[in-house]
Structure formats: structure tokens, C-alpha cells
């Protein structure tokens, strides 16, 4: 692996924040990665090569940005915080080749302008705030023809939801969405002490390898997810009641669809596998 640039000490980063009048905004999930071992583990899992282009969402204070720039040709970094953008431009990134810094909210940023269709798919690295995890994932999954793998730093409780299996406590519509869109695996556990300020919980780095084509050739992802969301809308309700309430049809028609799908109408959404959700979607058409 390429030698990594040295991560600034906590004292140096605290001084930078003080000097520029910056602070961490918890509502934006701003816990800055400052530990070199964690950076190295993320970079290894990303499997970059010298001509790679990588999208980084939320570079923060640039520890991971510098490491990515040492291993890839181009780092496209999108940061919403104007103070951090100024610090990155003025003090952290000068002299570092190949970094494109965009001051923007990723949820509003024009992905298609920078990553138009037809280009080679590239990896994404992101430290995702809890509040917008689903929204960021939805934007990336919609453009899986542009991105092939995601390296996501998330709180452990979020990671548990993303990777949960049927009947587990954390299994949710988001878990099904992940299974529909790609394969998920944990590649590193990052202790809370690796961040500034230190969060209350440890974090996990997930690698998500996105499918280039839909999982089910005969079913749009949106159709499957409509069924999934209906079945999870009221977790304690049985499937029959959830689907009727979501206006998939009259009670008798929904009962018939469940029967054709081979699914007991008294089951709950949290027990269904992705394949069962797909079959149920076909029968509800």
C-alpha cells in the first residue's frame, strides 16, 4: 500500500478549529476521523488503484481525503459546511494533487453533472450522519450505474439495521433495501476514540458492493420497496392487515395474492425474506 500521509494530532486539529472559529455540529454528524490506523483500514477496504476516481461525501478535516488522494488519481470531495470547506482549501489540501472540493449539500448536489452515465463505475467513501443515512443511500442506489462499491462509516446501531437478517430485532425496510441493492459486509470496527469530538458509541465501516442490474429482472426496485414499506408500516400488524391498509386491494384480493405467493397472511413483515417480498409483489400486481 502507498505510504499514507500523517494524520494531524488532536492538538493540532483542535488548534485549527479554535483558530478558525469552527466547532463540531452534532446535527450534521460531525465527528471527525483523526486516527491513522482507522484511516488505513478504510483505505485498504476501498481497494483503490492509481487511476481510480473516488467520491468522498463529507471530508470533514481531511484525514481520509489525504489518504484517498495518496492512492487514487482523483478524489471528488463534497462538503456542506462552509467553514470546513475554507479550512480544507486554505490549510489542509493546498499542494495535494487530484482533489476536487465541492461546497454543496450532497442531497442537492448534481451527481449527474460530475458523474454522467457511461463512465466507469467508481467507489464512494462517506461518514454518514444518522439522520440522512436513508436519503444518501437512496441517491447512490439510484445511480448504481455510476458507483460500484460504498465504504460507509456509520454508528454501530445503524450498521446493525443495514445488515440485519429476517426475524432479527434490527430487521427493517432499510435492511431489505440493502439486500435488494447489493451485498453488505463489515470490514472494520472503529472505536469512538478515533474521532474528534469523541462520540458516545463505536462506529462500523461497511462495504456495500452494488449490483449493476436490478436484483429481479421482472420487477422494478420501486415496486418491491412499495410492498416492503407497506409490510413494515405497522410492525405489530399481520401482513393481510398491513397490505389492505396500504390499499393494495380489497381484503379478498390481498388474501388471494398471499395464497398464490405461498405466504401465511398472519405472518408479519419482519419475517419475510427478500425473495418472499419479490414474489408477493408479483402476486399483488
Summarize the structure.
By secondary structure, this protein is α/β, with parallel strands linked by helices. It is built from twelve helices and nine strands. Helices cover 40% and strands 18% of the residues.
Topology, number of strands: 9
Oligomer: single chain
Let me know the average pLDDT.
91
Distance between the termini: 51 Å
The CATH class of the largest domain is Alpha Beta
Specify the biggest β-sheet: 7 strands, mixed
CATH superfamily of the largest domain: Vaccinia Virus protein VP39
- The share of residues in helices is 25-40%
Number of helices: 12
Based on CA inertia axes, which overall geometry fits?
elongated
Unreliable sequence segments: none
Q: How are the strands of the largest sheet arranged?
A: 4-3-2-5-6-9-7
Keywords summarizing the entry:
285 residues, seven-stranded mixed sheet, two-stranded antiparallel ribbon, Rossmann fold, 9 strands, 12 helices, alpha/beta, Helicase, Ruva Protein, domain 3
